[in-house]
Amino acid sequence: MKVSLFSTCLSDILFADVAKNTLEILERVGCDVDYPMEQTCCGQPAYNSGYLEEAKAAMKQMMKAFRHSEYVVGPSGSCVSMLKEYPHIFAGDPEWEEEAKVFASKCYEITEFLVDVMGITDLGSTFKGRVTFHSSCHMKRLLGVKEQPKILLRNVKGVELVDLPWEEDCCGFGGTFAVKNPVISQEMVSEKSRHVAETKAEYLVGADMGCLMNIGGRMEREGKKVKIIHITEILNTH
Amino acid sequence: MSIKIGEIPYKERIQKGIKDDFMRQAVSSAQGRFRTGRLTQAEELGNWEDWRNLGEEIRTHTLENLDYYLQQLSEQVSRRGGHVFFAETAEEANQYVKEIILKKQAKKVVKAKSMVTEEIGLNKALEEVGAEVVESDLGEWILQLDEDPPSHIVTPALHKNKQQIRETFAKKKGYTGSDTPEELAAFAREQLRQDFLAADVGVTGCNFAIAESGSITLVTNEGNAEMVTALPDTVITVMGMERIVPTWEEMEVLVSLLTRAAVGQKLTSYITALTGARLDEEIDGPEEFHLVVVDNGRSKILGTEFQSALHCIRCAACINACPVYRHIGGHAYNSIYPGPIGAVITPLLEGYDDHKELPYASTLCAACTEACPVKIPLHEHLIRHRQIIVEKEKKAPTAEKLMMKGFAAWASNPSIYNMSAKMAKPALGPWTKDGMIENGPGPLKAWTEVRDFYAPQGQSFRSWFKQRQKDGESK
Ligand code: SF4
């Protein structure tokens, strides 16, 4: 299967390992993976802040970059849910409407792609540790991907998966919310940090680096010893 | 009171909310109870999504034919001997009610819980013409004694707990009992009973008006709406113009959604229905009945992309699901409509000048949208508000505008993007220690005030990938 990797700007620039793991997993399961160099950012920071025109500039770039792709797969539920919004955003635009529809229909979050498209629930991975999973809001509510990452995690040898209390609740990241409303964001992430600590997990696993860097950054500041880890790092073990 | 509840600036309101441990504890435990109730109910029903779709359909249909149904309602109420008044503004509505009070020479007015009368500031208007107004909903009564605005649309006194309520009763009404809920409620009941008997006029809101029969219905758990409509000779119902359904059948669906979504109840304790004035052969009901249909900005929303915000059945499920609300409390929204639905409708009803922060008081986590029983896309409305604030209202900060211009240039131009990907690590080098940044420069400042920032791990992915391709080729 021919797959184009969507690295997300966050993984590309800050957390390159996440994109590497995603690439390697896709190759391991037999995909023929390319990486279009023209890709940048899904446009979410501008879109969610109300800057539609600025967001569209990014979105058009993304559609151009992946014009020839069959599947577009990325390691972030939030960014992929943004890509899925393009048809809605370009509705009524004679030049981009059709392209947006085609584009959105080929985009997948990595765990969703593995489970729903490839039909893989066990990657034969091994990882030792007590882990808890933070499901990001956009992934579970906007993209509707809830069970796939957990199915994959449960099949990793050595993983002890423990429930996170108040799992449904947002960690307070919200992109620019974290810096626009720092006081509320701090309360939210501190509460999340308390819940993570309660699980006594060694690792906080997620499928979205945005949330993980928020929670992890707060836990570092509080001196709590939990390691944040993207799900692909666990899945990309043997 | 009007929609806006005070003059304290946004930042101070947030601080005030966050410092109020007492309130936060009360809100957090109530939220926990309500949402667990809602989820259990949804699960028990099994086909909650079908119910939501039906609810949405009913609301969409009604709003798209609002003219027709309002006309029908009005005719039916008149046929049953009631009077109908369409008020375009809050002033018009208040004026109409004041005139009735004056004509009746009413001294005492009892009120059932109603958001729309809060919205138009009816109590104050009635006091101006010398009437004493008594709130009969327990929560509203507590707030009235305390001169405090509501902080939640279903349980207005959610921010208070029983010790506080005991204190209020003691201070304002000479209460000497304990703080057990039963004893507090018994005291309130006894006090209110005297008011019910002495009232000349009863005022109610309206959960759903039924166009076909000209009835108004009230959904309560305390039964006081029953007292307000049954005892006084004159009853005035004030309703927002969107609170209407075609027939009893749709009302039944919406009430089921309302009670389940609000507090996780299958059914409510009381549904009071009132159809016009008392006819000669009837034994109860008011001699005189007035229905005031309030617009107050609602018709401006009709036909716009925000129309679905008028679907709201005021169940507060969105408020109970909202983590931002949990931390700042209802008063921080400075509107009698707090939480996600408040952040959506307050600027629609009152403009952005006083409420431009509200659409940003959300992480867009969409918990509200998921909870809403009539499927209002609340988080999408918040994004749309932000677009209007940026583009039409031009109220966005200059620094932010510049940053977003920069974003557009960066994200639409791969060569600029590539350069930044290369530069990120060395550029942040001076602030980096053990892979973390504790005190970042520029835009990182706000972030690192409360949490560490992860410095770039190493090479960007794209340069690693390029390298890998090159190595592959030379092998
Ligand atoms: S917006 Fe939806 S969830 Fe919120 S109060 Fe209205 S009906 Fe209930």
Q: Which structural category do the helix and sheet elements of chain B fall into?
A: alpha/beta
Radius of gyration of chain A: 17 Å
For the sheet with most strands of chain B, the description reads: 6 strands, parallel
The CA-CA distance between the termini of chain B, in Å, is 77 Å
- Please give the number of β-strands of chain B: 13
Number of helices of chain B: 22
Strand percentage of chain A, roughly?
15-25%
Summarize the structure.
With 238 residues, chain A is of the alpha/beta class. Helices cover 50% and strands 16% of the residues of chain A.
Give a verbal description of the structure:
The complex is a heterodimer of chains A (238) and B (475). Chain A is α/β, with parallel strands linked by helices. In chain A, 50% of the residues lie in helices and 16% in strands. Chain A is built from 13 helices and eight strands. Chain A has a four-stranded parallel β-sheet with strand order 2-1-3-4, with helices on both faces. A four-stranded parallel β-sheet of chain A has the order 6-5-7-8, with helices on both faces. In chain A, helix 5 (77-89) runs antiparallel to helix 6 and helix 7 crosses helix 9. Chain B has 475 residues and is α/β, with parallel strands linked by helices. Chain B is built from 22 helices and 13 strands. In chain B, the strands form three sheets. Chain B has a six-stranded parallel β-sheet, with helices on both faces. In chain B, strands 8-5-6-9 form a four-stranded mixed β-sheet. In chain B, helix 2 packs across helix 12 (248-263), helix 3 packs across helix 12 (248-263) and helix 16 runs parallel beside helix 18 (378-391). The radius of gyration of chain B is 26 Å and the shape is elongated. At the A-B interface, helix 1, helix 2, helix 3, helix 4 and helix 8 of A face helix 1, helix 15, helix 17, helix 18 and helix 19 of B. The structure holds iron/sulfur cluster. Iron/sulfur cluster (SF4) binds next to helix 14 of chain B.
